[in-house]
User: Fold these one by one.
Assistant:
Number 1:
Amino acid sequence: MNGNPAAPASLAALASLNSPEAYLGHVMFVSGPEKHCGKTTFLNRAMTLARRGARVAGRVPPAVMTVGYDGEARDFLTGVRKPAVPVQPGDIFVTAERFLRPSGTCPEILDVAPGVGALGRLCLARASRDGMVALVGPEGNKAVSWILEALVEGGLADTVLVDGAINRITQAASRKAARFVYVLRVDRAGLHRAVDRVRRIGALMALPVALPMTGRGVSPARVSFHVDGALTTETAARIPGDVRSVVVDDFTKVFLDRSELAAFTRERSLAVARQIEFAGFVVSCRGLSDEEFLHKLDDQELAELVCFNPYRAAAEGAA
C-alpha cells in the first residue's frame, strides 16, 4: 500500500430510498441477513419507484433479477407464503424458460444465458403485459456478472434491481459500480442482533480505500499485506506479525463478525482496494417502534442511512 489510504466516500450523501433517483442508472443489489427479512417486498417497492422514474425521465424500463430462486408463491423450504414479483409491459426480467408462460406476461425472449441450471435455461425476457413472475437467477458470481453485462452493456436496461442471495453479499462485487442496500426485519427479541448487524455493515462501509499496491503479499517497504481472497479468522491468524496495514479486495471479502473486526482493527489498519457503494439500510420494525430501534443503535451517522419500511410509507401516502 503506497501512501495513506484514501478517505471513504461520504455515506450520508445518498438519494432517499423513497426516491426514484436512488435507483435510476444503477445496478442495485438487495441484500439481507436471513429468509423473510423483507427483501422481495422492498424489491417490489423499488421496482415501482424505478419504473415511475424511468417513465418521467424518458429512460428504458428497469430490469429485475434474482440470485438463485425467488418470487414463488410459497417458500420451498418453509412453506411460508412469499410476496410475488409483479412486472408491467416493458419491464425486463430473468427467469428459467419453464416459468415464462405461467407468468402471464406474454414475454419476448431477448437473450439466453450460457449453460443450463437445475431449473433449466435462464432467459432474459421483456414483459408485454402485466403479470406475476417467479424469478430464477444464477448461483455463481461469474454468471451474475454475465447477465448484468448482457443487460447493461447490451443496452437492454440501465437500471437493474437484483434480489440477492440470503446472508450473502459477495455478489455485490460481481459488478463494478454496483450499489447495495441491506434489508432487515427487527423484533424486540432480535433487537440486539439487528443493531450489531447494522453496526458491522457500517464499519465495513467506513473502511478506507487503499492506494494501489504492486503485486500480492507483503510489501517490505510499507510492512503491508494484501489478502488474496477472504479475510477470516484463519487467514487473519496467518498474516505475519510485523504487518500493520492490511488490504482486502473489497468489503465482501471480510468474513469477521463485528467483535472480531473490532479486535482486528485495534491491532492493524484495514483498507479495501475497491469500494462498493452503499445505498442504505431498510429496517422494518415488528413489535417495537422505529424510535426504539434508533435509540438502541445510538449512532447518528448510521441513523441517517436508515429508511424505515418504504413500502409501508408508500401505502400510507408518505411517498
Note: The longest strand covers residues 277-286.
Number 2:
Amino acid sequence: MRRRVGEREITYDDAGAGAPVVLLHPFPCNRRYWATVAAALAAPDRRLLTVDAPGFGESAAATTFAIADWADDVAALLDALDLATATVVGLSMGGYAALAMAARHRARLAALVLADTRAAADSAEVRRARADAIALLDSAGVAGYLDRSLPRLLAPEAPAAVLVQARALAETRADQLRAGIAALRDRPDRTAELSAILCPTLVLAGARDQVVPPEEMRGMAATIPGARFAILEGAGHLASLEAPGPFLAAVRGFLDQAAARQSGAA
C-alpha cells in the first residue's frame, strides 16, 4: 500500500483487525523481511502493519534520510489510519526507529519490542567501518557489498540456506544502501532516554549476534523500567531468520500478555 503523508510517501502492508502491531525491518532489508513473521503473528484481534524505511522497498528513492524520519512516518501513518497507539517491534535498524518513536512519539506506544539493536551511537571504530562499507559499495557494487556484509548479520555457523534467504530479502539499489548506511552512522545516542520508556518492553538478543553483543542488550533492558530480556540461542543479528520459532514464541507471548494487561485495565 502507498500513502502520501506530508512530504513523503509511505509504503506499507496492513492486514487484520484489532490491536495494531507495527514491524520495522532491519538494514539492508525492507518490509518484505517481516512477511513470514507477520503471517505467523496474525490473530483475530491483531492488526499487523509492516512499514518501509524511507527509500526502501517500494517507497520513492531517498538519497538521504534520518532514522527519526522513519519514526515520524510511522506516527503519521498511525494518524492517517486513525490509530491512537500501537505496539512497535523493531529489529536492528528498525530498533533504532523504535527508540526514536519512544523519544519523539512516546504517547503512541502501547508496547515495545527491541530486537538486536542498541541505544548507543556509533563508536569511532564503527563509524570507520561505516566509511569502509560505503567505499566497498562504491568499489565492488551492490553484489560485492552484500557478499561481504551479510554473513556478519548471521551467526558464524549459520546454514548457507539462511544466508541465501537474507540475500533474497536485501535491498539492491546502491543509492538506498548508501543512504541507509549514512542514516545508521548519523543516528543520535539514545542511552539517556531509556529510563523514560514506561510502556511494556521486551528486549531480544541473538546469542550469536556479531553486531550487538547480547550483554549490551541486557544492559539496555536493565535501564528500561520493567523491561523483560530474553536471549535467543543460536541466533545472530537477524534473529528472526535464524531462530524463527523462539523469536515468534517470545513476541507472541509478550503481545498476549500486553493485551491481557490492557484488557484488565479496561
Note: The CA atoms of residues 136 and 148 lie 9 Å apart.
